[in-house]
Amino acid sequence: MSIDQMNRMIALASKRSLRDQVLLTLASRHGLRASELAGLRTSDINLKDQRILVRSKKGSNTASEALLPGEAELLKRWFAVKPEHALVFPSAKANDSREPGELTTKQIYRIFRRYAELAGVPDVSRSPHAFRHTLGQHASRIMDIKAVQVMLRHKNIQSTAQYFTRSQAEVDTAKATLFA
Questions:
Q1: 124-129 — which CB contacts under 8 Å span 24+ positions?
Q2: Global pTM exceeds 0.90
Q3: Which residues contact 172 (CB under 8 A, 6 or more apart)?
Q4: Per-residue pLDDT of the chain (180 residues; tens, 9 = 90+)
Q5: Beta strands in 29-177 (DSSP E)
Q6: Which structural domains are found in the chain, ordered by start?
Q7: CB-based contact 31:44 (threshold 8 Å)
């Protein structure tokens, strides 16, 4: 998936659903997994300090991250109209999840698939996790491996290393610059 495709998905959501726009925006900019989106609590968002607490799943690191430009305003708009609930993305009805009213990961996948299809994203990339991979791939071009590890909240550097594949031509160019 490309950054442009992610942005198209968010633009489509902005015309249809404020909740979906916020969900896709946070997922794309913070690399949130579906389970992290489902469990995101209103108390994890600090609009005064412009921070979001990401309680990582799958054994990753929990992190307090800065909200990026425009996110606080978007969240304020969502909080003004969302149902009163401890979760940022409550479900319209109770379900079988651990916490009643929590969007299930299955529901989140459906939201992603709908906007990915509308945006023309290839079928293989129509999942929330594709946003994490896109973020990692594009960040690996401008950030060092340790910065990407922190950004994606990986405990193991091997999980981050997958984003740092380089062609021989790229290595040759970098080496020529190094010795120029």
A1: 125/1, 125/5, 127/34, 128/27, 128/32, 128/33, 128/34, 128/37, 129/33, 129/34
A2: no
A3: none
A4: 889 999 999 999 999 999 999 999 999 999 898 999 999 999 999 999 999 999 887 767 788 989 999 999 999 999 999 988 999 999 876 545 444 577 888 999 999 999 999 999 999 888 888 888 888 887 888 888 888 887 888 788 887 777 777 788 888 998 899 898
A5: 45-46, 51-54, 63-66
A6: 3-178 (1.10.443.10)
A7: no
